[in-house]
Every structure is written in C-alpha cells, then in structure tokens.
C-alpha cells in the first residue's frame, strides 16, 4: 500500500514511490525510486536514512546556475548524474555562490517582476512551463536520457530531484508511472502531495518577500509558481495527447521505449 511520508527533514518534498499500485495489480518496489527536491540541506539523519535505504544514484535535473547556487550534499559511495531538464538560459540569472534567505527573497521579487512583464497570471505561466517540458527538444532529450539511466539501475535506490521536487520531477514521475502502468488518478494524487509538502516553505518565502514588496499580485504570483495545481500537470498530459498522439506514443516514440524496454522497466521496479 502506498503511504507517502516525509523521509528527509532537509528535503521535505521527498518521498519513496514504493507501494503505488498498477492497473494489473502489481506494486512499485520500495527503496528503488525516490522523488525529491534539492539535497543541499540534508541533515546527518537524512544521510543515514538514504544510506540505509540503499541509495546508489542521484540524478539532478537542475540547471548549472541552480547547482552552483545550492549544491547537493555529497554522500560517499553514491553516483551523481547531471541531467538538466531545462536549458541554462531558462534560469534567467546566473549565480555562483549560495544565497541567504534575504538574498533569496530579493532575487525572487526581482524574478517575479521580470516574469510578470509577460503576464500577471502566475498559474498561467506555470502551465506554460509544463508545456515546455513535454514539447521542447532539450527537455524531451533529457527525459529520454533519464529513462536510459532508469533502465541501467539494476539495484539499490535511485533518487531524482530538481529544486523543489514538483515541476521537472513531477513531470518525470508522471512519465515513469505511466510507463509502469499506474492509473492517472493515482499519478495525479501523488503529484498533488507536493502542494502540502511545499506549503510551509512557500509561506516562509512569501513572508521574507514582504520586506521587498507589498503588492498582493506579486505575492500571489510567488504563491502560484511555488506550489502545484492539478491543472499544471494536466497541461503537460494534454499536450502529450494533442501533439504526440497520446502517452503510449510519447513513451514509444519520444522516450524510445519499445516493448522490451517497457518490460525491463517493469521487471526492475515492480513486484
């Protein structure tokens, strides 16, 4: 049975996908696939948890600027693979050092003001981002590379993450669960867990940002881009249907998963 739980205090949106059920009654194995946000703030207890879970591989979806700003905590004996789902220019501002909470708030307000020049609806811009993730060739190529990594993950836990573990990771999880035969309603339910998990960090960020803006539209924009809504992921799924001929065609043609590879994925991650 799938019982999502916070497994890392330093990465509160992390969760083991083990226990999710497929349409044909199989179950995702535990300690094989862990979705997460960035690992920059892992505690010693978090590291021990991951070691005990058999962590072997970490796949980082972030841009170069994001990795430089908040590098992952390195765990001995773990392989780290870089697989950026967005081009570096998508980050907008290059940063080469960690930032304080105050610096993060200032950067966030500046970023939001820049983004709002393209429209004041944060939810609409997030839906556009999800569309990019399943239509931009760079993103498609890197999700395909991620499936190759999954196919070579013979044993142990693989953790994949972006910054908050909700958008790039949410899309990747939707693709993985679809390939494994998990129903869409279960996929969406797992996706929406990120709303609750990210909420405390979002509210902290908004309070920090109030030092630099009292504009309710700017604050709402921050909230919209710092959370998840079912409509965001449904935008990606809708584009997969309309532009790629459906999920099965997308997995086979864009992710290059033929019958043998799909069977291998299910052998590796289902029981």
Description:
This protein has 271 residues and is α/β, with parallel strands linked by helices. It contains eleven helices and five strands. It has a five-stranded mixed beta sheet with strand order 1-2-5-3-4. The chain has helices at 44-52, 64-69, 101-115, 122-133, 137-151, 168-180, 184-209, 216-225, 230-244, 247-254, 259-269; strands spanning 15-16, 33-36, 55-60, 79-82, 157-161.
Keywords:
alpha/beta; 8% strand; globular; 271 residues; Protein-Tyrosine Phosphatase, Chain A; 5-stranded mixed beta sheet
Question: What does the secondary structure layout of this molecule look like, with pairings?
Answer:
Blueprint: E1 15-16, E2 33-36, H1 44-52, E3 55-60, H2 64-69, E4 79-82, H3 101-115, H4 122-133, H5 137-151, E5 157-161, H6 168-180, H7 184-209, H8 216-225, H9 230-244, H10 247-254, H11 259-269
Parallel strand pairs: 2-5, 3-4, 3-5
Antiparallel strand pairs: 1-2
Helix pairs in contact: 3-7, 4-8, 4-9, 6-7, 9-10
Concise description?
With 271 residues, this protein is α/β, with parallel strands linked by helices. The protein has eleven helices and five strands.
- Give the topology string: H per helix, E per strand: EEHEHEHHHEHHHHHH
CATH architecture: Alpha-Beta Complex
Gap between N and C termini: 12 Å
| Beta content | 5-15%
Radius of gyration: 18 Å
Please give the largest β-sheet. 5 strands, mixed
The name CATH uses for the topology is: Protein-Tyrosine Phosphatase, Chain A
The CATH class is identified as Alpha Beta
Global mean pLDDT: 94
| Order of the strands making up the biggest sheet | 1-2-5-3-4
The low-confidence runs, each spanning 5 or more residues with pLDDT under 50, are 91-96
Class by SSE composition: alpha/beta
In CATH terms, the superfamily is: Protein tyrosine phosphatase superfamily
Instruction: Tally the helices.
Output: 11
